[in-house]
């Protein structure tokens, strides 16, 4: 019955619509095979996405790569003037800037 429904639906859809449905199905399948985490900060979103199945070696490589990304972010922060990092009494407890 489900196959018949798909055939009837396909009969009434344009080729553009069929391509859109195929694309969405492919996206859903890819989403099923990966994990994603989003961290919201005032400046925007920090997004991390990774495959659900990963080998130990790939995990170790990814861990090293993440450490490099953190270093890049630190460089961006240290390149800003200190007034951009600390704004009055609402500064982070982790802030390294002296008041």
Give an overview in words:
- The protein has 99 residues and is an alpha+beta fold.
- The protein starts with a helix and ends in a 14-residue tail after the last helix.
- It contains four helices and two strands.
- It has a two-stranded antiparallel ribbon with strand order 1-2.
- It is 58% helix and 16% strand.
SSE topology sketch:
Elements: H1 2-12, H2 15-32, E1 34-41, E2 44-51, H3 56-79, H4 82-85
Antiparallel strand pairs: 1-2
Task: Give the SSE order as H and E letters.
Answer: HHEEHH
Give helix % range: 55-70%
Largest sheet strand order: 1-2
Given as residue ranges, the uncertain stretches (5+ residues, pLDDT < 50) are: none
Separation of termini? 70 Å
Please describe the biggest sheet, giving its number of strands, its sense, and whether it closes into a barrel: 2 strands, antiparallel
What value does the average pLDDT take? 77
Strand content: 15-25%
Count, helices: 4
Radius of gyration: 23 Å
Structural class by secondary-structure content: alpha+beta
Q: Number of DSSP strands? A: 2
- Shape type: elongated
List keywords for this structure.
99 residues, two-stranded antiparallel sheet, 4 helices, 2 strands, 16% strand, elongated
Task: Summarize the model shown.
This protein has helices at 2-12, 15-32, 56-79, 82-85; strands at residues 34-41, 44-51.
């Amino acid at each position: 019955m489900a196959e018949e429904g798909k055939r009837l639906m396909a009969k009434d859809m344009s080729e553009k619509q069929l391509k859109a449905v195929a694309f969405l199905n492919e996206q859903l399948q890819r989403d099923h095979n990966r994990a994603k985490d989003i961290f919201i900060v005032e400046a925007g979103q920090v997004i991390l996405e990774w495959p659900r199945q990963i080998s130990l070696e790939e995990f170790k490589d990814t861990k090293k790569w993440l450490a490099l990304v953190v270093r890049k972010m630190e460089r961006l922060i240290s390149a800003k003037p200190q007034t951009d990092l600390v704004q009055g009494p609402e500064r982070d407890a982790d802030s390294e800037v002296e008041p």
